[in-house]
Amino acid sequence: MWCGKPRLSIVAGLLFCTAPAFASELGARATARGGVGFADAGDAAAEEWNIAASALDPRYVIFAGAGLGPDDYVNLRAGALDSRTSPVALGAGYARLVDDVAPTGADRPGWTTPGAALSNPTAWQRVHLGLGVPFLERRMSVAVSARYDWRTSALAGDDNAFDFGLSVAGRPIDQVTLALGARNLLDSDYPRITRQADLGVRWTPGPRFGVEADISAPIDANVSVDRFVWRGGLDAGLADWLALRGGWSTEAGTNFASVGVGLIHTSVVLDYGVKIQLDDPSRNWHALDLRVNF
Q: What Cα–Cα distance (Å) separates residue 125 from each residue in 19, 163, 247?
């Protein structure tokens, strides 16, 4: 959601320099399975990211969620997806994130008190809107998404930016969904945002089982494989009312494991997910979502 500038520290870059930055900012289901969901038409809570895939299946869902993590990370989000009541799919939402990540490099203030911890409490907010257009009897779709971000930072002051992205999704056979997109195409100077490309492939051999692999890469002059973000995850339904999820992601050489559970009813779904940084398990992110299907 908010991606880092190259001048940020390695730790901050690992935490923020993916697109989206945290799986928990896409909801508990994405958190639970390593951050995948770009090609998942069934994950309405990630509609900001997967609006092209979402247009392939008719549904009407509203959702709300929250996330907790290190660095005083608290994330609140809500939104809706409607791909059923009109010929196009519409997704919209609002998110508010607060954290306290000490600035480094050029972001540091010109003076500090010796021995004192450097603090920078910041509130990040965003609204977004996405439009997906399916065709070929919902075998393919194209989509455009727009976002407006604003922040209030104790050390850096206020800032805001507008950005947009484009994506396309296809379902050559019923069990396979492919998605390709580019986001943050304006590449503004707004902190934690970089131009990114995403590719997702999802295989769903049955209604209770799914496997997905996603790749995110920066779009700039310094593209290299070691800057890619690799994600893999799965969903396994043990019963009509219970789903277990797990996943793995590698971000700038750091590995993360994820796990979660979903409690499913025809009208209401409760999802929980946790993401753990394996070389420092004390750094973990939790997300909880409530979805209502109409």
A: 16, 14, 28
Q: Decide if 174 contacts 148 (C-beta within 8 A).
A: no
User: What would the pLDDT profile of 106-157 be if each residue is shown by its tens digit?
Assistant: 566 666 666 667 889 999 999 999 999 999 999 999 999 999 999 999 888 8
Is 267 in contact with 241 (CB distance < 8 Å)? no
What gap in Å lies between CA 134 and CA 89, rounded to an integer?
A: 8
Place of tokens 């320099």: 17
Q: Taking the mean position of all CA atoms in its chain, how far away is CA 90?
A: 18
Phi, psi of 8 (to 5 degrees): -65, 160
What pLDDT was estimated at residue 23?
A: 63
pLDDT at 188: 82
pLDDT for residue 278: 97
To 10 degrees, the CA torsion angle through 23, 27, 31, 35? -50
The amino acid present at 212, given as its one-letter code, is: E
Q: Do residues 172 and 178 make contact, with C-beta atoms less than 8 angstroms apart?
A: yes
Assessment of whether the complete model's pTM goes beyond 0.90: no
Asked if 186 contacts 178 with a C-beta cutoff of 8 angstroms, the reply is: no
